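Q: Given only this backbone (128 positions), what sequence would you predict?
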């Protein structure tokens, strides 16, 4: 179920990337190398930044925002075993601003990371 939701997020993200008028827009963007326990914090940052700059008025914005807020997406990005580990995560406003194109590339990388993680463990599970 999570896998389908993550595939849906990637499709919606791709549609929105092609639909945005200003790829030069500067947005707070989490880093490429997000620690496992900071994935949910990064997701929250991506979601809030998306809402702040694009709203949810457009078709693709609304669908993507809703999918990023879905419990299956959130559980798919929860790699952390304890809540205290998230205290080392940076706040959204502390992340440097990057062009919108880079923002979307990093969001896509985060979602793909989850998919790769799931594929790896599914293969490992089948193997044993």
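A: Predicted residues:
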């Amino acid at each position: 179920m999570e896998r389908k939701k993550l595939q849906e997020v990637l499709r919606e993200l791709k549609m929105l990337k092609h639909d945005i008028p200003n790829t030069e827009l500067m947005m707070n963007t989490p880093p490429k190398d997000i620690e496992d326990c900071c994935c949910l914090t990064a997701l929250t940052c991506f979601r809030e930044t998306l809402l702040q700059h694009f709203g949810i008025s457009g078709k693709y914005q609304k669908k993507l925002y809703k999918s990023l807020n879905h419990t299956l997406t959130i559980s798919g990005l929860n790699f952390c075993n304890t809540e205290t580990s998230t205290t080392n995560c940076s706040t959204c406003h502390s992340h440097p601003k990057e062009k919108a194109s880079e923002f979307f590339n990093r969001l896509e990388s985060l979602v793909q990371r989850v998919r790769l993680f799931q594929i790896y463990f599914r293969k490992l599970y089948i193997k044993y």
